[in-house]
């Protein structure tokens, strides 16, 4: 038995934890730079705010209906996500964090999985303030489908067995996990309009439409597990950090500062997973939607002599790359860095003629990184990152980072 615990309207729920008066009121959260609606409360959905709608298109709709609008506060959401997962871990020894708001749990051998789900849902709600829905099934795909139905019917927890015609028949084909819009069109042509009718299509037809991937979904809907619980996320090959600027950036100094910040962010991700980067790519681009402005974009990469997780080396090389592609006279919209070909730090191979410089700075780098990890990004940072950060994203309606910053802790009275 597999359980899928999914936080309801997660970003909105995080905001509501610290602003309880927003319960039952329409709330939306916007993407980076206050671009599009990326999370909507049920009330906002009812008003007709579409998912992914650009904010400027829905601004008056929101004003007319008193919709509370927030900029995204990813630091808060990430921290709340960690809290939810730590509560979930008490209910099952094996757990896969699938996304920021979804986890699969191994419920096999549990005599009353539905009863346990109800308790888990209540505990997460009491301890974190985040409402979740739990779907149960003998495969991941069925658990996902059960979760969808639990949300739709407002029941909170639901179990779906593979032969359950009524439940499977209620989920449209394009809403089945692993079936996209494109595949759905082709499946409808062979009579598969919902999850149930998909299970009735012969395997050979399924394979001819969507290959082995769709066949796996088909098997899972019929109760045969094909997807394992992945407790350890597979190490990534590359890691990217890039952002759009809050205002156009023209000067090299500001760009260097931005790229240094992205480099540090990327290297911290890499260090956290125990990897080293073998190469670096830096890119810049102007705003291609501003047809009235001169356009330029460029990228350049280099491979490092030796795989590294040293921010000093990465910043230095990234700045070299940036200077090589920077052209004055353009308004840059975005810049970023990609750390290439990540390898495990256990398999590091030293350079035969490497000087001792790296060893001497090693302890210093580790100390700064440790301070930053413990006291936050302003507790320990590299000079190249600068202090001003005028290029940072727009987040005009962001709530305080209640749970991760002492200076932004909620106040009462
Ligand atoms: Mg969710």
Describe how the helices and strands are arranged.
Elements: E1 2-7, H1 10-18, E2 27-30, E3 37-40, H2 42-47, H3 55-64, E4 68-71, H4 74-88, E5 95-99, E6 102-106, H5 113-128, E7 132-137, H6 140-153, E8 157-159, H7 165-169, H8 181-189, H9 195-199, H10 203-221, E9 239-249, H11 252-272, E10 275-286, E11 297-308, H12 311-325, E12 332-340, E13 343-344, H13 357-375
Parallel strand pairs: 2-4, 7-8
Antiparallel strand pairs: 1-6, 1-7, 2-3, 5-6, 9-12, 10-11, 10-12, 10-13
This protein binds magnesium ion (MG).
Magnesium ion is lined by residues 6-7, 10, 101.
Molecular structure report:
The chain is an alpha+beta fold. The chain folds into three domains: 2-153, Alpha-Beta Plaits, CATH 3.30.70; 162-221; 239-385, 2-Layer Sandwich (Dna Ligase, domain 1). The chain contains 13 helices and 13 strands. The protein has helices at residues 10-18, 42-47, 55-64, 74-88, 113-128, 140-153, 165-169, 181-189, 195-199, 203-221, 252-272, 311-325, 357-375, and strands at residues 2-7, 27-30, 37-40, 68-71, 95-99, 102-106, 132-137, 157-159, 239-249, 275-286, 297-308, 332-340, 343-344. The strands form three sheets. Strands 5-6-1-7-8 form a five-stranded mixed β-sheet. Strands 9, 10, 11, 12 and 13 form a five-stranded antiparallel β-sheet that branches. A three-stranded mixed β-sheet has the order 3-2-4. Helix 6 (140-153) links the parallel strand 7 (132-137) and strand 8. The longest helix is centred in the middle third of the chain and has 21 residues, at 252-272. It starts with a strand and ends in a 38-residue tail after the last helix. The structure holds magnesium ion (MG). Magnesium ion is lined by residues 6-7, 10, 101.
């Amino acid at each position: 038995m597999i359980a899928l615990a999914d936080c309801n309207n997660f970003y909105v729920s995080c905001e509501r934890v610290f602003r309880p008066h927003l319960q039952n009121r329409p709330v939306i959260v916007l993407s980076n730079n206050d671009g599009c609606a990326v999370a909507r409360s049920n009330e906002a959905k009812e008003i007709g705010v579409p998912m992914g709608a650009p904010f400027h298109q829905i601004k008056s709709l929101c004003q007319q209906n008193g919709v509370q609008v927030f900029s995204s506060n990813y630091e808060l959401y990430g921290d709340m996500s960690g809290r939810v997962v730590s509560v979930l871990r008490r209910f099952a020894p094996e757990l896969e964090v699938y996304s920021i708001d979804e986890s699969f749990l191994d419920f096999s051998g549990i005599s009353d999985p539905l009863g346990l789900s109800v308790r888990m849902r209540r505990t997460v709600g009491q301890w974190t303030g985040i409402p979740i829905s739990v779907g149960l099934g003998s495969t991941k795909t069925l658990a996902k489908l059960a979760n969808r139905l639990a949300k739709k019917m407002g029941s909170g927890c639901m179990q779906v067995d593979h032969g359950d015609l009524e439940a499977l028949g209620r989920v449209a084909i394009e809403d089945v996990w692993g079936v996209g819009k494109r595949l759905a069109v082709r499946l409808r042509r062979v009579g598969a309009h919902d999850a149930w009718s998909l299970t009735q299509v012969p395997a050979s037809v399924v394979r001819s439409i969507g290959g082995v991937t769709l066949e796996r979904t088909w098997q899972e809907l019929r109760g045969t597990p094909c997807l394992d619980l992945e407790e350890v996320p597979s190490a990534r090959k590359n890691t990217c950090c890039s952002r759009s600027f809050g205002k156009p950036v023209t000067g090299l100094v500001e760009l260097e500062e931005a790229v240094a910040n992205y480099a540090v962010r990327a290297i911290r991700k890499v260090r956290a997973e125990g990897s080293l980067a073998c190469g670096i790519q830096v890119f810049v681009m102007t705003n291609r939607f501003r047809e009235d402005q001169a356009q330029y974009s460029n990228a350049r990469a280099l491979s490092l002599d030796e795989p590294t997780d040293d921010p000093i080396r990465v910043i230095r090389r990234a700045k070299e790359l940036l200077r090589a592609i920077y052209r004055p006279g353009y308004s840059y919209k975005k810049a970023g860095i990609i750390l290439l070909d990540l390898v495990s730090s256990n398999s590091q191979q030293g350079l035969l003629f490497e000087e001792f410089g790296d060893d001497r700075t090693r302890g210093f780098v580790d100390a700064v990184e440790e301070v930053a990890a413990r006291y936050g990004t302003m507790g320990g940072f590299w000079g190249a990152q600068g202090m001003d950060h005028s290029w940072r994203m727009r987040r005009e309606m962001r709530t305080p980072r209640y749970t991760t910053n002492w200076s932004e802790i909620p106040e009462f009275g």
